[in-house]
User: What shape does this take?
Amino acid sequence: MPWHLLPENASVGDNGHLYIGGCDTVEVAQEFGTPVFIYDEDHLRARCREAVRSFGNSATYATKAFLCKAMAKLVHSEGMKLDVATGGELHVALAAGVPGPDLVMHGNNKSESELSEALAAEVGHIVVDSFEELDRIERLVAAGSPPARILLRVTPGVEAHTHEFISTGQDDSKFGFTVSTGVAAAAVARAMASDAVELVGIHAHIGSQVFRVDSFAKALEVLAGFAEPYGLEHLVIGGGLGVPYVEGEEAPSISQWGKILIQAAQDVGIKAKLGIEPGRSIAAAAAITVYTVGTVKQLEGIRTYIAVDGGMSDNPRPVLYGSGYEGFLPADPLAERTITARVVGKHCETGDLLIRDAALPASTAVGDLLATPVTGAYGHSMGSNYNKVLRPPIVFCRDGDARLVVRRETYADLLQTDLS
Ligand code: LLP
Assistant: This one.
């Protein structure tokens, strides 16, 4: 098992089991059942600190990657702001006690009610995506009340070199105002002329799971040319730093990314305060998901299918983006992985796979715990109740203490919105 894919505070105990944050992952799985998301709390904290060291209070965590009250509190206590992209994310962040001014409201199609919730919470910034949204804000900000502090989201026309579904900086995009056609300049003029908004900066997010940092440098170059003449206070380059998911992949750390961005911004003469919005690079490698193997089906001359008790409902990424993962046994993380098998879930479709060609120990058998690393971002947050499968619990481990921060859903939860 490639060790660098595991959370920072992972170790092997005397019993040979994988420990995370000082907790035996086998015991955690026994106590809370499977599937279960096990997070290394200090790993999360260390990543937040890296972001804050490089960008101070312009380091903003993208909650879409992973959000629950415990996470919102943790990130905020480490000095980061939080970006929320819907009324729902805003609601959870506020429920966690994060003050409105430390929140940034995103979304390419914010409704009038989401905007009024954001205004009522007095969020720090609203990142405006469209002229229609400017209209909505103008309707909502009452005459005489203070203007909404906004950034305009622009598309710099830069290829992020990532999966098409998560590439956002190119001109052909549903997000933001296009720089190359002059639409972004028109949006700036419109915002500057409005009494309802105070334009404080420009925002761009070129994509997610980006390994090639030169893509960010290119975006900064375009943004320097576009935004600097306006002399605005903030320039936010979004999130997007990639993380390794499988053997052989490597990515810069948040600190290295920060250095590169700050240098690139300096090189092109950016004077505005540079901000980032990392999501995945904060949360992804902090967690593993532990499942239980339920069936092993050997098809002579074809392949072996290993079915676990979760699947596309707790991790839709393999199905959506063809994303790769590794697999290992938490009871013996150092075991040699000599067989290849397809790890699948329990949902009623063939596409429901977690690992297409998993290297696993030959001993892997029914009843074993099987884990996938790097599932801390866009797993729980994109989870579903498909087939009325219950969403797994979330456990934060730190100094030998395993703290349940989100419980497993129950059958009763499944009926909570059902009225007749
Ligand atoms: N800021 C904005 C405006 C964003 O749209 C995003 C991600 C981020 C920040 C955070 O990006 P990160 O640092 O996490 O790359 N579900 C996909 C990822 C979608 C990302 C959407 N926007 C996945 O599982 O790969």
About this structure: The chain has a mean pLDDT of 96. The pocket of LLP is lined by residues 62, 64-65, 83, 106, 166, 205, 208-209, 238-241, 277-281, 317, 321, 378, 382 (CB under 6 Å). The first strand starts at residue 10 and ends at 12. The chain is about 25% helix and 25% strand.
